[in-house]
Automatic annotation (TrEMBL):
<keyword id="KW-0812">Transmembrane</keyword>
<dbReference type="Pfam" id="PF12704">
    <property type="entry name" value="MacB_PCD"/>
</dbReference>
<dbReference type="GO" id="GO:0016787">
    <property type="term" value="F:hydrolase activity"/>
</dbReference>
<feature type="transmembrane region" description="Helical">
    <location>
        <begin position="341"/>
        <end position="365"/>
    </location>
</feature>
<keyword id="KW-0378">Hydrolase</keyword>
<dbReference type="Pfam" id="PF02687">
    <property type="entry name" value="FtsX"/>
</dbReference>
<keyword id="KW-0547">Nucleotide-binding</keyword>
<dbReference type="GO" id="GO:0005524">
    <property type="term" value="F:ATP binding"/>
</dbReference>
<keyword id="KW-0472">Membrane</keyword>
<feature type="transmembrane region" description="Helical">
    <location>
        <begin position="303"/>
        <end position="329"/>
    </location>
</feature>
<feature type="domain" description="MacB-like periplasmic core">
    <location>
        <begin position="27"/>
        <end position="201"/>
    </location>
</feature>
<keyword id="KW-1133">Transmembrane helix</keyword>
<feature type="transmembrane region" description="Helical">
    <location>
        <begin position="257"/>
        <end position="282"/>
    </location>
</feature>
<feature type="domain" description="ABC3 transporter permease C-terminal">
    <location>
        <begin position="261"/>
        <end position="374"/>
    </location>
</feature>
<keyword id="KW-0067">ATP-binding</keyword>
<dbReference type="InterPro" id="IPR025857">
    <property type="entry name" value="MacB_PCD"/>
</dbReference>
<comment type="similarity">
    <text>Belongs to the ABC-4 integral membrane protein family.</text>
</comment>
Length: 382
């Protein structure tokens, strides 16, 4: 056992001494490996973090799932609302906004009221451009841009909303204050938004017509959630908003494909750099190799010595690359998504192993040239 340990120590000392004597060339190889490892570990970190980052980014484009009653004559109850929420994985729900719609008149003109959980609607739709502010108090409304133009209303103006009576004939008038004007470029500009509490005082049925959800999930995961809801409650019909989910998957697939292609190219370039450096080292050490062979060293032992040096470079280059790669990935993520990436501990051993394998493979062709070195010719100076 002691003899084996002594042999291993001698082998390590020999490799370290060899690396130290050729600092300039080995530093070039080490930098090539470190740069390659930096880009690889950084891109892999981004690759695995892209779905999370893209999911958060796409949530700013609105809800990606709707739930409506299967029977048009029925509505969604609070109990069903809780039931659907329980089927969404923990931490995936970004926003939930149930809506109650009813007709109303303002200045004898027909408009549609939309009562909702205003906090949930805000979380679902961060892209809405609000001139003013979201309603915070009772009897405050958020009106669409088209409504604002038609009625010449702006923030702070008072309006009288005329709705049918909850019980019996006739109608009732209710005063509201405009807290803001919403611009979206869509159907929201034709609606008047208020809190559920306010609209509940105007309508008889306090159940919901539709519920919008913003869920941080890819299309496959979202499809599974939709299926689970359908199986759990047949009276509900969940639907994916395909314009959002499909766009997310298309962009995600293209970005991940790009990262994969760049990683392959970087690995190839790193292999060429290491192979070129090792070829120069072998040429430079022809006399040393010839002397080793003359003293009884076998071809396999000479090859193992060179591959050992390559493996050491792979380990140190990989460690340096992992640290720099995380910094690189973090900078990219902050610049693109304004969010930090998560560190992947498993990436440390994986990057080091990849660097060792790439370095050894890149060294095989240069090192194989040592087999052809004839000690007699080399030592004669030929």
């Amino acid at each position: 056992m002691e003899g084996k340990q002594s042999k291993n120590k001698f082998y390590l000392k020999m490799i370290m001494t060899s690396l130290a004597r050729r600092r300039a060339r080995m530093l070039t190889a080490l930098l090539a490996i470190a740069m390659g490892a930096t880009i690889i570990s950084g891109l892999v970190t981004i690759y695995y973090d892209i779905p999370r980052q893209m999911g958060k980014e796409f949530r700013s484009y609105g809800a990606n799932m709707l739930v409506i009653p299967t029977n048009p004559d029925k509505k969604i109850t609070n109990e069903q609302l809780d039931e659907v929420k329980s089927l969404i994985p923990s931490g995936k729900l970004v926003g939930q906004a149930p809506y109650i719609y009813t007709n109303a008149k303002i200045n004898e003109q027909p408009y549609m009221l939309a009562g909702t959980d205003l906090k949930g609607a805000k979380e679902n739709s961060p892209y809405w451009l609000i001139d003013g502010s979201w309603p915070e108090k009772s009897r405050e409304v958020l009106i669409g841009n088209e409504v604002s133009k038609a009625l010449e209303l702006k923030e702070g103006d008072k309006i009288i909303i005329n709705t049918p009576k909850v019980y019996g004939e006739g109608s009732i008038d209710t005063n509201f204050v405009v807290s803001g004007v919403v611009t979206t470029g869509g159907k929201e500009e034709e609606l008047i938004f208020m809190s559920i509490d306010d609209i509940s005082k105007l309508v008889k049925d306090k159940n919901f017509d539709v519920v919008e959800y913003s869920i941080e999930a890819e299309q496959n995961e979202l499809s599974k959630i939709v299926s689970n809801i359908s199986q759990k409650d047949a009276s509900l019909t969940p639907q994916m908003v395909k314009r959002v989910t499909a766009s997310q998957d298309i962009v995600l697939n293209k970005l991940q494909a790009l990262v994969f292609i760049v990683t392959i190219i970087v690995l190839f370039i790193m292999m060429i750099c290491v192979s070129t450096t090792m070829m120069a080292v072998v040429t430079e050490r022809r006399k040393e190799i010839g002397l080793k062979k003359a003293l009884g060293a076998t071809n396999s032992s000479v090859i193992v010595d060179f591959l050992g040096e390559g493996a050491f470079l792979g380990v140190f280059g990989g460690l340096l690359g992992v640290a720099l790669g995380y910094i690189f990935a973090n900078r990219v993520s902050i610049s693109v998504f304004a969010r930090k990436v998560s560190f992947l501990p498993l990436l440390v051993p994986m990057t080091i192993i990849v660097c060792i394998v790439i370095t050894i493979v890149a060294s095989l062709i240069p090192v194989s040239k040592t087999v052809d070195i004839d000690p007699a010719l080399v030592l004669r100076g030929e």
